[in-house]
């Protein structure tokens, strides 16, 4: 997969209040969020956001509530207008589009999945799934085959003629995902798409998303407040705090080298063995003389390795990719990686 | 000597007051006072009258009497009346035609066509045989006691007026929901229309239009009954789930698509509740409008009061109750059907 930049966000600021331009000057001079609210009565939404979103990858934006993550995702299709900065989609500045071009972008380039599903309650599942095509002027007969195909793909075969209120939350969100897929847009924005679902269904939906992604390779921007979810889904992780990016990069990397106490506090409670993968901690040299205890895939997580080793810390495993040895992993290194680096 | 004489002399306004002296007609109160032959001078502080226009006029003729206020209003109204009706007459003429046409159509179509059509409509909007049966029995009961014609007149007027209320009320409500300024401007008008006693509508209208024209009561009914459908359309659209609106935006709906595909369908339960209220208020007003020649059951109620025909008045009243229940049940049932498809 190539690492082309699909969307590039540069120096993005958002300030809520009556005169954001004035407040922007203060923010650029370094006023912090609390002072801005106290002295200027403006709310700092986003400060100097620079994020590159890669084509065909899942970029997860994570932060607690109030960190500006939902505000950020709404800037991408301009449901919220920024105060300053630029957003480029395929090199074209989204902020310069006029109303008609923006509508075209929303119809064809970006689809969105919402936390509260936001389905049309008076339309059937089929009509909801085909909403994007219906907006572009297709009749039910035109989009039916497409909608039925994607509904079946997300596991809703036979529910086409039901109404949203007849479905459970998880099924409603499947309709939401099908709706985004039917629009056939290269970019999918997912705003806390699974946060309203209970944990078991959430896990199912995450698996469904990963499965779809391996098949479709869309550019997905996923918002969440759940670190486990973020680590499970993300190719690129952006952590937001109070409207600023604290750290971004490969999630494994962030986990092993957190640069901010905020992130350290965050990652302390997670199960590192489940999240860390062999490729992040293996050594690159393969020694032919050593007697390897077994072969691992570089995508395996450490939990799998632990159960494979049976708790024996003397073992050394060989890491293979497509049948070719690419590195080795000794259990001592694994144990070290499991200890969080507490500054 | 009147009460406030001393006040005007103290202020040195005696001359100004004297100038205003002229021989106007005497008011009834003056005549009575004169007949009693005693002056209005109060004996103690306890009896001091409020310094109203009439009391001040006693002391100082330069003050107008209160009857001049009502007279001025009347004259002002009469002065603009001709020009106003020049504009309003042609504008409202279609209302007369619609009402006359509906009355003519309802009364000149034989009962064995009108009743089945009505029952079919009831079934169409409610999909309930029970209600069809109830409506059928009610209408047949009214027809059996020879009130069919009156009931049909009342219904015809209600249908025309309620239809026009919806025709104008829903767009006004939509405009209100889209602009806060529009809402701020419209709400006082709606408040006034709603609090004005129904009889008061009739006063200026009787001056503007001829009592022989049906648009006179048509306008009174529409003004009175349009309020709920406007209010509830506005409210309904404003209450549409923000998340769904956001989804509509995110998928690139035009404002028009948003209105027809999202806002109106989702506001429909509220709009229908407004239509129900509008129909009920039309019914209330059509009875009162019989004072200005609206035909129907109201005329019989009026006859009952005027001629002390107790039986006629009571039966006509009962007929109105039956119509009210029928209209209410039918609109509520169709509202429930809409609600059922919209549960979230």
Key words describing this protein structure:
A: 343 residues, alpha/beta, Rossmann fold, CBS domain Like, 6-stranded mixed β-sheet, 13 strands, globular, B: 344 residues, mainly alpha, MetI-like fold, 2 domains, 15 helices, 79% helix, 0% strand
| Low confidence ranges of chain A | none
Enumerate how many helices of chain A there are, as a single number. Answer: 16
CATH class of the largest domain in chain A: Alpha Beta
Helical run tally of chain B? 15
Could you state the oligomeric state of the chains shown?
A: heterodimer
Low-confidence regions of chain B? none
Percent helix range of chain B: over 70%
Distance between the termini of chain B: 77 Å
Strand order of the largest sheet of chain A: 6-7-8-3-9-10
- N-to-C terminal Cα separation of chain A, in Å? 35 Å
Largest sheet of chain A: 6 strands, mixed
How does this model look, in words?
The complex is a heterodimer of chains A (343) and B (344). Chain A is α/β, with parallel strands linked by helices. Chain A folds into two domains: 5-109 and 185-270, P-loop containing nucleotide triphosphate hydrolases (Rossmann fold, 3-Layer(aba) Sandwich), CATH 3.40.50; 275-338, CBS domain Like. Chain A contains 16 helices and 13 strands. Chain A has helices spanning 20-28, 33-40, 69-76, 99-108, 125-129, 131-135, 140-153, 169-182, 199-216, 227-233, 251-256, 261-267, 272-275, 278-281, 302-309, 331-338, and strands at residues 5-16, 43-54, 58-62, 84-89, 92-93, 110-113, 187-191, 219-224, 236-241, 244-249, 295-297, 316-321, 324-330. Chain A has a six-stranded mixed beta sheet with strand order 6-7-8-3-9-10, sandwiched between helices. Chain A is globular. Chain B has two domains: 5-64, no CATH class; 74-342, MetI-like fold (Orthogonal Bundle). Helix content of chain B is 79%, strand content 0%. In chain B, helix 7 (129-144) runs antiparallel to helix 15, helix 8 runs antiparallel to helix 9 (180-195) and helix 10 (198-208) crosses helix 11. The model of chain B has no long low-confidence stretch (mean pLDDT 89). At the A-B interface, helix 4, strand 6 and helix 6 of A face helix 12 and helix 13 of B.
């Amino acid at each position: 997969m190539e690492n082309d930049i699909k969307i590039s966000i540069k120096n993005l600021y958002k300030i809520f209040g009556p005169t954001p331009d004035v407040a922007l000057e203060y923010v650029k001079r370094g006023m912090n969020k609390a002072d801005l609210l106290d002295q200027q009565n403006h709310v700092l939404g986003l400060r100097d956001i620079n994020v590159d979103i890669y084509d065909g990858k899942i970029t997860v934006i994570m932060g607690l509530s109030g960190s500006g993550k939902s505000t950020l995702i709404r800037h991408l299709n301009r449901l919220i207008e920024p105060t300053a900065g630029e957003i480029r989609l395929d090199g074209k500045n989204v902020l310069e589009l006029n109303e008609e071009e923006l509508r075209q972008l929303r119809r064809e380039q970006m689809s969105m999945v919402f936390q509260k599903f936001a389905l049309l309650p008076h339309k059937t599942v089929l009509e909801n799934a085909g909403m994007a095509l219906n907006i572009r002027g297709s009749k039910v007969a035109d989009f039916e085959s497409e909608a039925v195909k994607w509904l079946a793909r997300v596991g809703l075969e036979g529910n086409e003629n039901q109404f949203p209120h007849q479905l459970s939350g998880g099924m409603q969100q499947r309709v939401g995902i099908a709706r985004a897929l039917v629009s056939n847009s290269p970019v999918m924005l997912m705003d806390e798409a699974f946060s309203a679902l209970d944990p078991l269904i959430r896990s199912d939906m995450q698996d469904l998303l990963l499965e779809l992604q391996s098949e479709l390779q869309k550019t997905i921007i996923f918002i969440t407040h759940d670190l486990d979810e973020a680590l499970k889904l993300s190719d690129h992780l952006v952590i937001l705090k109070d409207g600023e990016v604290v750290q971004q990069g490969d999630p494994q990397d962030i986990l092993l080298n957190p640069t901010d106490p905020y992130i350290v506090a965050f990652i302390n409670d997670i199960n590192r063995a489940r999240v860390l993968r062999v490729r992040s901690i293996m050594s690159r040299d393969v020694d032919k003389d050593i007697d390897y205890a077994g072969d691992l895939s570089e995508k395996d997580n450490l939990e799998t390795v632990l159960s494979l080793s049976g708790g024996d810390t003397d073992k050394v495993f060989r890491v293979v990719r497509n049948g070719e040895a690419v590195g080795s992993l000794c259990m001592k290194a694994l144990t070290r990686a499991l200890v969080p680096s507490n500054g | 000597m009147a009460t406030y004489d001393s006040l005007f002399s103290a202020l040195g306004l005696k001359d100004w007051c004297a100038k205003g002296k002229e021989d106007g007609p005497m008011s009834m109160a003056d005549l009575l006072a004169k007949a009693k032959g005693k002056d209005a001078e109060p004996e103690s502080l306890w009896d001091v009258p409020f310094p109203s226009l009439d009391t001040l006029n006693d002391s100082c003729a330069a003050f107008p009497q209160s009857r001049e206020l009502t007279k001025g209003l009347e004259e002002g109204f009469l002065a603009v009346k001709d020009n106003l009706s020049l504009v309003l007459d042609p504008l409202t003429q279609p209302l007369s035609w619609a009402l006359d046409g509906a009355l003519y159509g309802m009364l000149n179509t034989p009962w064995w066509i009108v009743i089945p059509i009505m029952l079919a409509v009831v079934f169409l909007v409610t999909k309930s045989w029970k209600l069809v049966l109830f409506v059928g029995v009610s209408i047949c009961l009214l027809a059996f006691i020879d009130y069919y014609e009156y009931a049909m007149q009342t219904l015809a007027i209600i249908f025309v007026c309620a239809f026009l209320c919806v025709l104008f009320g829903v767009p006004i409500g939509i405009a209100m929901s889209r602009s806060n300024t529009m809402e701020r401007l419209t709400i006082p008008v709606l408040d006034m229309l709603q609090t004005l006693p129904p009889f008061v509508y009739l006063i200026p209208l009787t001056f503007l239009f001829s009592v022989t024209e049906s648009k006179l009561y048509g306008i009174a009914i529409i003004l009175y009954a349009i309020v709920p459908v406007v209010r509830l359309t506005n409210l309904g659209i404003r209450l549409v789930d923000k998340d769904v609106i956001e989804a509509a935006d995110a998928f690139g709906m035009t404002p028009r698509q948003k209105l027809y595909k999202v806002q109106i369908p989702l506001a429909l339960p509220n709009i229908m509740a407004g239509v129900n209220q509008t129909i009920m208020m039309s019914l209330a007003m059509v009875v009162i409008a019989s004072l200005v020649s609206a035909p129907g059951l109201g005329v019989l109620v009026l006859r009952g009061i005027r001629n002390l025909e107790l039986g006629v008045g009571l039966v006509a009243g009962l007929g109105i109750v039956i119509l009210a229940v029928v209209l209410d049940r039918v609109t509520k049932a169709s509202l429930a059907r809409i609600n059922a498809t919209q549960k979230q």
